[in-house]
């Protein structure tokens, strides 16, 4: 049975979102949700969850290149994941997002050049990269 999975690229000013099906292992960007000091517009997130009815939420976990927590952002991403679970009662998994922003920028640039590199596009493409990487990890590739 196919599950719908929604992923978030947490940021203090903007949170990228993407959705995908585990049967295809592919994801599509949704929208960038504005945040103030890491606190999102929860109404926007609720609308996405109501529209897509995900079975699982995946939150990108920011770490350094060695996989160590980043003092400023890692605990906030974990708190965001906990709040998602608390508000919506859906299972939430954290997934290592090392290099997702760099990969997202490269993907966007290859599709649309510099014009495609807006902050919202990058955040949502980062969420796509996080989700597709999560799918790959599930399949043990």
TrEMBL record:
<dbReference type="GO" id="GO:0000967">
    <property type="term" value="P:rRNA 5'-end processing"/>
</dbReference>
<dbReference type="InterPro" id="IPR006641">
    <property type="entry name" value="YqgF/RNaseH-like_dom"/>
</dbReference>
<dbReference type="GO" id="GO:0005829">
    <property type="term" value="C:cytosol"/>
</dbReference>
<keyword id="KW-0690">Ribosome biogenesis</keyword>
<keyword id="KW-0540">Nuclease</keyword>
<dbReference type="Pfam" id="PF03652">
    <property type="entry name" value="RuvX"/>
</dbReference>
<dbReference type="InterPro" id="IPR005227">
    <property type="entry name" value="YqgF"/>
</dbReference>
<keyword id="KW-0963">Cytoplasm</keyword>
<keyword id="KW-0378">Hydrolase</keyword>
<dbReference type="InterPro" id="IPR012337">
    <property type="entry name" value="RNaseH-like_sf"/>
</dbReference>
<dbReference type="InterPro" id="IPR037027">
    <property type="entry name" value="YqgF/RNaseH-like_dom_sf"/>
</dbReference>
<comment type="similarity">
    <text>Belongs to the YqgF HJR family.</text>
</comment>
<feature type="domain" description="YqgF/RNase H-like">
    <location>
        <begin position="3"/>
        <end position="104"/>
    </location>
</feature>
<dbReference type="GO" id="GO:0016788">
    <property type="term" value="F:hydrolase activity, acting on ester bonds"/>
</dbReference>
<comment type="function">
    <text>Could be a nuclease involved in processing of the 5'-end of pre-16S rRNA.</text>
</comment>
<dbReference type="GO" id="GO:0004518">
    <property type="term" value="F:nuclease activity"/>
</dbReference>
<protein>
    <recommendedName>
        <fullName>Putative pre-16S rRNA nuclease</fullName>
        <ecNumber>3.1.-.-</ecNumber>
    </recommendedName>
</protein>
């Amino acid at each position: 049975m196919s599950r719908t999975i929604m992923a978030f690229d947490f940021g203090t000013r903007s949170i990228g979102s993407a959705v995908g099906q585990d049967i295809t292992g592919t994801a599509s960007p949704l929208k960038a949700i504005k945040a103030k000091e890491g606190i999102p517009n929860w109404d926007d997130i609720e609308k996405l969850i109501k529209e897509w009815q995900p079975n699982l939420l995946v939150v990108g976990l920011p770490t350094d290149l060695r996989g160590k927590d980043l003092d400023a952002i890692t605990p906030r991403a974990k708190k965001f994941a906990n709040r998602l679970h608390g508000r919506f009662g859906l299972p939430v998994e954290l997934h290592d997002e090392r290099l997702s922003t760099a990969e997202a920028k490269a993907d966007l640039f290859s599709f649309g050049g510099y014009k495609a590199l807006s902050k919202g596009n990058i955040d949502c493409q980062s969420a796509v990269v996080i989700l597709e990487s999560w799918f790959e990890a599930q399949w043990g590739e």
